Amino acid sequence: MRCRGMRLAKRTVARPGQPQRSPAGSSRSPTAGAACILFALGLFAFTGALHAAGTPVFPVKPVRIVISTTAGSGPDVVARLLGNRLTEVWGQPIVVDARPGASGLIGAETTAKSSPDGYTMWLGTMTTLLGTLMHQRYRMADAFAPVGLVATTASIFAVHAALPVHSIAELIALAKTRPGQLLYASTGQGTTPHLCMESFNAMAGLRMEHVPYKASTGVLVDLMGGQVHVTCTSALSWQSLKGDRARGLAVTTRSRSVLAPELPPVAETLPGFEMLSWLGLLAPLGTPPQTIAAVNAAVVRVLQSPDIQERLIAVGAESAGGTPAAFGAFLRSETARWDKVLRDAGIRPPQ
Q1: Residue 57: C-alpha distances to residues 40, 43, 90, 231, 285 (Å)
Q2: Exposed, middle or buried, 148 (CB in 10 Å: 0-12/13-18/19+)?
Q3: Could you tell me the CA-to-CA distances from 175 to 24, 102, 157 in Å, in that order?
Q4: Same fold for the domain at 63-153+276-345 and the one at 155-268?
């Protein structure tokens, strides 16, 4: 069918007894004319759909990223790096909302009770996963919709410089000759450093004693001062520990990490050992899959940027990425693993 010049034809009026004819010079039937009009309307609708497809449906207003730590913390730094770049991608402000306290449950509850529309997300971490498991509330694998893994970070086994060990093998050998005498420091009951050391104790058959602190500052000061012998600290904290008073032994990732390339993995001596700290975005349950897919695509795009990768490394993290489904499977695996460690070690919420 050929539709030329959608002009309005001049109407002719038939005389009595004379059948009505099409306008002079036109052989188009009324049916053909109607078909042309429908074709034009369909083309208009199709063009409008293409235009709409090129216009972002999400977001149309500011997006909030909830963190369970204070301003200036590692998650805050990562959230702001991510948020600033997402603002450029989306053209909408990203607000970082710090909700610290209660082992991460305040941030979890804030997100879980928000509208499931994609405009509130939670930057969960390994530490907040442990908090939700200890309290058995807002378990990440069940109470939220996974959006994507943002970053991972290694932990470092570090010892006081006077301790006569220079490797994980030597630390295990010394601890076995001095059961209950070596002291390890953590940032509190049920935290990532605590679980790291308890897992190490269990796998190596050791009994090093736990000394909990309220913050990482106390851990670092007392390790360098010799009041405690060993700790499992974040890669970021390790930067301030390097020197004459503390010595790094190994990283807790399966292979060498760009965050501390000079250190071998613990797994080279203790096969199967791994402690991967991480940060990932979660949304309230019921958030539409298409919204989650849109957020995930934008986040992955940001994380693939070389300058973002370099800036994450500078703060002690490596960019991750991946699909919502992959992050969901990761959360289920981490939940099963650390739930068992918490139960086996008898670790309960701090009173």
Answers
A1: 26, 22, 10, 48, 20
A2: buried
A3: 105, 34, 14
A4: yes
Show the tokens assigned to 96. Answer: 């970082």
Per the CATH hierarchy, to which homologous superfamily does domain 63-153+276-345 belong?
A: Bordetella uptake gene, domain 1 (3.40.190.150)
pLDDT at 71: 86
Q: How far is residue 180 from each of residues 9, 160, 184, 227, 276, measured CA to CA in Å?
A: 100, 17, 10, 15, 26
Residues with pLDDT less than 50, the chain:
1-55
Q: Quick one: what percent of the chain has pLDDT higher than 70? A: 83
Two structure tokens written together for 147? 């959006």
CB 196 within 8 A of CB 253: no
Query: pTM (2 decimals)?
Result: 0.76
At the topology level, CATH places domain 155-268 in D-Maltodextrin-Binding Protein; domain 2 (3.40.190)
Secondary structure string (H, E, C) spanning the chain? CCCCCCCCCCCCCCCCCCCCCCCCCCCCCHHHHHHHHHHHHHHHHHHHHHHHHCCCCCCCCCEEEEECCCCCCHHHHHHHHHHHHHHHHHCCCEEEEECCCHHHHHHHHHHHCCCCCCCEEEEEEHHHHHHHHHHCCCCHHHHEEEEEEEEEECEEEEEECCCCCCCHHHHHHHHHHCCCCCEEEECCCCCHHHHHHHHHHHHHCCCCEEEECCCHHHHHHHHHHCCCCEEEEEHHHHHHHCCCCEEEEEECCCCCCCCCCCCCEHHHCCCCCCCCEEEEEEEECCCCHHHHHHHHHHHHHHHCCHHHHHHHHHCCCEEEECCHHHHHHHHHHHHHHHHHHHHHHCCCCCC
The ranges assigned to domains in the chain are 63-153+276-345, 155-268
